[in-house]
Amino acid sequence: MRPELPNLVTLLAEGFPNFSWAKKLILWENVIFSLIIVFILVLITYLASRKKKMVPARLQNGLEFCVELIDDFVCGILGQKGRRYVPFIGTLFIYILSMNLIGLVPFMKSSTSSWSTTLGLALCVFIYVQYSGIREMGFLGYLDHMFGKPRGIVAFSVFIPIMLFILHIVSELVKPLSLSLRLRSNIWGDDMLLGVLAGFGIKGVPLLVFSSLLVIIASVIQALVFSLLSTIYFALIITHEEEGITKEA
Question: Which pLDDT does position 158 carry in this prediction?
Fold first, then answer.
């Protein structure tokens, strides 16, 4: 068995081994904990926004502060044009951070320790980036971007544009893999470490507490890295489109 801390799903599956629904719970384990995070975030947002005031209460003030930080972070990289991506990138950061941290709660699990979860998130980024590229530059402009826009005598070569096109395709396909594997591997490693230390019993409590503090820091960093790289992917599209307008002007 993996040195993984027990959670609600595994405890239910072990407590009712002869029931088919218990086996199905294991299959949907990561989805269940992902949905728990969704429910918690929706509940917090509802409680904070149902009675908005000019002088905000603590919860509303805290959420507004988080929104401002995310807005400054995204617009600081993408400029004012990046404000349209703030809801998406902000949701990514908060959702990933919450999933990372929930593994520290007894009988809960970080869904981001599973590649199926992180790959799904990375694919959302990949699809949205490609859609944004086509929307910003048009389909033909997007293809032109993928071919690398060779200039001078190189533009008359068929080999160079095709080679650049293939390189662009490969680099785009590698992005969701690197995004998902980086996040999954780090969170999975943290969970395994906590599981091993918990197996030491009382003797491992000091190390477990210290490692938990490191895991909190790592969880924030990993959520930030995922969001930062996603923002940079959007920046590559927006920058390319703006450069094209400058050259035409």
Answer: 65
Which residues in the chain land under pLDDT 50?
Answer: 1, 240-249
pLDDT digits (tens, 9 = 90+) for 125-148: 999 999 998 888 888 888 877 777
Running DSSP on this structure, what letter comes out for residue 7? B
Alpha helices by DSSP H, listed for the chain, are 8-15, 20-27, 29-49, 58-78, 86-102, 115-146, 159-198, 205-248
2 occurs within a structural domain: no
> Model-level pTM?
0.86
Pairwise CA distance, residues 136 & 227, whole Å = 21
Tally of structural domains, the chain: 1
Residue 230 has a CB neighbour count (10 Å cut-off) of 25
Q: Cα–Cα distance between 168 and 164 in angstroms, integer?
A: 6
Which two tokens mark 127? 């699809």
3 inside domain: no
For residue 233, is it within any domain? Answer: yes
Q: CB-based contacts of 58: which residues, under 8 Å, 6+ apart?
A: none
Query: H or E stretch including 151?
Result: none
Residue 107: strand pairing partners: 7
